[in-house]
């Protein structure tokens, strides 16, 4: 960040999900340093309030804290309701929350947790906040995906991994869903003043996946951690997508290392994106 960047986000309100640690917290700190008003979410109130104090130390005041487990649709809806009550304006929504589980877990809604948290949560939250975003003069939706989306495919016949489950396959599918969702959202919001972009943060050293790590991850992590990005470096692309003046009207793009990058061929499948949108709407009760 250059000294002249301070104040770049002054007067802008940013809501970041999954922002009590790792990339999400680093994104919040970076945007706070640019003058943004921050709203953050986390599952644990103590951690969320500690994160808020950390963000305030970066130069902002009055961080709004929301506590919710976004794998639950009821919690997503409650978060949206509380955000609409407490945030008169939402200029940027950063869909950062995500997770990885080696074994199959089922949410309170009876859905596979990886798909529910990584895709359905941002899909539902974004949809519920769209009218508030549209009220901003220029608003942005930034969704954190991953380069592993290129290895994913959306199995519409087994979205929940009931027939066959593998943690990596479920995660890759969810990250492809993030990009498909972003592109479809951009198409549906064309001309609205709201842009939608997806970002790849890189391989970052965080506690990601620690709840249920893959065996290979557990074995290799001590050796590869020195080569991973810091959370601050990993957050740089999210910060860029949320704040860069030159991206004011840029939509339907995928960024890595703060530069536009061509995403996978599957991510540009218009029929799959439309089908995923309608399927997701059914699964979260928006139809």
Write the layout of secondary structure elements.
Layout: E1 13-16, H1 22-33, E2 37-42, H2 45-56, E3 64-67, H3 73-86, E4 92-95, H4 113-134, E5 139-144, H5 167-188, E6 194-200, H6 215-224, H7 231-243, E7 253-256, E8 259-260, H8 270-283
Which structural category do the helix and sheet elements fall into? alpha/beta
Number of helices: 8
CATH fold assignment: Rossmann fold
Total E-strand runs:
8
CATH superfamily, by name, is NAD(P)-binding Rossmann-like Domain
> Order of strands across the widest beta sheet?
3-2-1-4-5-6-7-8
Q: Can you tell me the overall shape?
A: globular
Q: Judging by the overall fold, what is the CATH architecture?
A: 3-Layer(aba) Sandwich
Structural overview:
With 287 residues, the protein is α/β, with parallel strands linked by helices. The chain has one domain: NAD(P)-binding Rossmann-like Domain (Rossmann fold), CATH 3.40.50. It is 41% helix and 13% strand. It is built from 8 helices and 8 strands. An 8-stranded mixed beta sheet has the order 3-2-1-4-5-6-7-8, sandwiched between helices. The longest helix has 22 residues, at 113-134. The radius of gyration is 18 Å and the shape is globular.
